[in-house]
Design goal:
By secondary structure, the protein is α+β, with helices and mostly antiparallel strands. It folds into three domains: 37 residues; 137 residues, no CATH class; 111 residues. It has twelve helices and four strands. Strands 1-2-4-3 form a four-stranded mixed beta sheet.
């Protein structure tokens, strides 16, 4: 390819650009039809919220670095770095690394805040390149017997770390070794769903049949919770914090059950003119029942004071 004429190189670049555009055609068409602009997808990547380049790049680089060292056993990161270093010894390998490093640095510089789903586009090519680097190492061993032995040893090392990690992810995902920012999203944050699933599963024991039930949480969390409501008891999903919906149900029925997620989205129970009873708390990993982020409340209308004669 290094001796290919420029016309052929330009033609290949055009093919690459066309394939890239085709990959994004469906989501772009969806956004255009919904007429919501691109902020819904770009989110934190759309703007830098007034942050300077160092203020953006430093934290983003730290998150990418944490993604490398704080997932699972440290031997994974060591093997990854050795593979990348081995790939850098070959001229073609250095070109591949440059093709990965340049857009990765641009993403870290442009994004106001990187999250695991954004960093994934950096990590997946990184894993492939590290594997290519180990291919370079194995190729230099010469004998096929030594190559197979080394490949088998690497497989054993990887599986020795992966199998316990996978077992923990299946049995107790809250105990996984994760970077702090990833743990906030996947374990302790509202998007993880911990606490909400347990609350929904307990509805047959905590909520009387036919009682009004209102969610005070992000609508997406409420919809996911209702997905788990296999027993038929579903929550109303008003816009957060759901104060008006809870007040309306309270005025109509005299009693309403409200499943409240921790601030900043959940409502302040004291804002309602009602007698509040804490039915149960559903802690996320690392929380206690008394400090649970997800709490089910029963609200009873305050008695109307008698009119003086």
């Amino acid at each position: 390819m290094g001796r290919a004429p420029w016309q052929q190189r330009i033609r290949h670049l055009g093919v690459i650009a066309a394939v890239g555009l085709a990959c994004f055609a469906a989501p772009l068409a969806y956004l255009a039809l919904r007429a919501e602009g691109f902020n819904v997808v770009l989110g934190r990547l759309a703007g830098s919220e007034g942050l300077t380049l160092p203020a953006r790049f430093g934290p983003n680089l730290a998150r990418v670095w944490a993604q490398l060292w704080e997932y699972g056993p440290g031997v994974w990161a060591a093997l990854l770095l050795v593979g990348l270093a081995a790939l850098a010894l070959a001229r073609t390998g250095r070109r591949l690394l440059l093709a990965w490093v340049a857009p990765s640095l641009a993403l870290m510089a442009a994004a106001s805040e990187l999250w695991p789903r954004h960093i994934l586009v950096i990590v997946l090519p990184e894993l492939a390149l590290a594997g290519a680097g180990w291919g370079v190492v194995l190729a230099r061993l010469g004998s096929a017997r030594w190559q197979w032995a080394a490949a088998g040893g690497l497989s054993v090392v990887l599986l020795a770390g992966f199998l316990p990690y996978a077992a923990t992810a299946y049995r107790d995902p809250g105990a996984l070794a994760l970077p702090a920012f990833a743990r906030a999203q996947y374990v302790t944050g509202h998007a993880a769903g911990f606490g909400i699933r347990e609350a929904v599963a307990a509805f047959p024991e905590t909520v009387p049949p036919g009682a009004p039930l209102v969610a005070s949480m992000f609508p997406a969390s409420c919809r996911r919770a209702n997905f788990y409501a296999t027993h038929g008891i579903e929550m109303a999903c008003p816009p957060p914090p759901g104060l008006d919906a809870a007040a309306a149900a309270l005025a109509e029925h005299g009693t309403v059950y409200v499943l409240v997620e921790a601030p900043p989205v959940g409502l302040d129970i004291a804002a309602l003119d009602a007698h509040a009873t804490r039915v149960a708390g559903y802690p996320r990993p690392g929380e206690a029942e008394a400090t649970a982020s997800v709490v089910l409340w029963r609200l009873d209308a305050a008695p109307t004071p008698p009119t003086p004669e």
